[in-house]
Amino acid sequence: MKVLGIYGSPRAGGNSDILLDQALEAARQAGAEVKAVYVRDLDISGCLECGGCDETGQCVVADDMDKVYPQLEEAQAVILSTPIFFYNVPAQAKALIDRAQACWAKRLLKKGKDRGKYEGGKGYLIAVGATKGQNLFQGVELTAKYFFDAMDMSYHGGLLHRGIEAKGSVNDHPEILEEARQLGRDVASGQA
Q: Any idea where the domains of the chain sit in the sequence?
């Protein structure tokens, strides 16, 4: 199993990073080939909506996203990990997600209107938010679902935790850390 972890936080070592570290290490220990993308370390512009990918499925913007596309294509499972910023992903992660428009264009070219069956793998979300709002994860889940859809992946949920704010405070919740490790094992085995 080839698993790609996308670290969506602009802050290194934060709660979403810690949970993705746990999940990826457990996946690795379970035999998965694991790779990671740290969005905060990349120079990715937003989608220009120029239509350049419509005919080829290839983005015409040359930046660090060129390093990410091959990893997205070879991954059998993607775990997107993010803190919640205004009920969604931070701007850095959103730029990567928006640039998946080229993946969507490629999918349309490959499948046309017959795109109901997912063949690209599975997508998972780890999201951590400070507040306890009832609708805290609605926006980020929709964003993740359609990000995975663009890559021909089905969305399989993940870990969504409220009330976690201070940097590293998720370490005070061993049950959440274990949930992340279990997610990694399940992803590696194909059971999630």
A: 2-189
Cα 46 from chain centre: 16
Look up the CATH number of domain 2-189.
3.40.50.360
| β strands within the chain, DSSP E | 2-7, 33-38, 77-83, 121-128, 153-161
**What is the rounded CA–CA span in Å between residue 1 and residue 7?**
19
Question: How would residue 119 be classed by pLDDT, with cut points 50, 70 and 90?
Answer: confident
Q: Are strands 2-7 and 33-38 parallel, antiparallel or unpaired?
A: parallel
Helices and strands, number each (H, E), in the chain: 6, 5
Q: Please indicate, yes or no, whether the overall pTM of this predicted structure exceeds 0.85.
A: yes
What was the pLDDT predicted at 112?
A: 64
pLDDT band per the 50, 70, 90 thresholds, residue 132 = confident
The CA distances from residue 5 to 58, 88, 99, 125, 166, in Å, are: 22, 18, 17, 10, 22
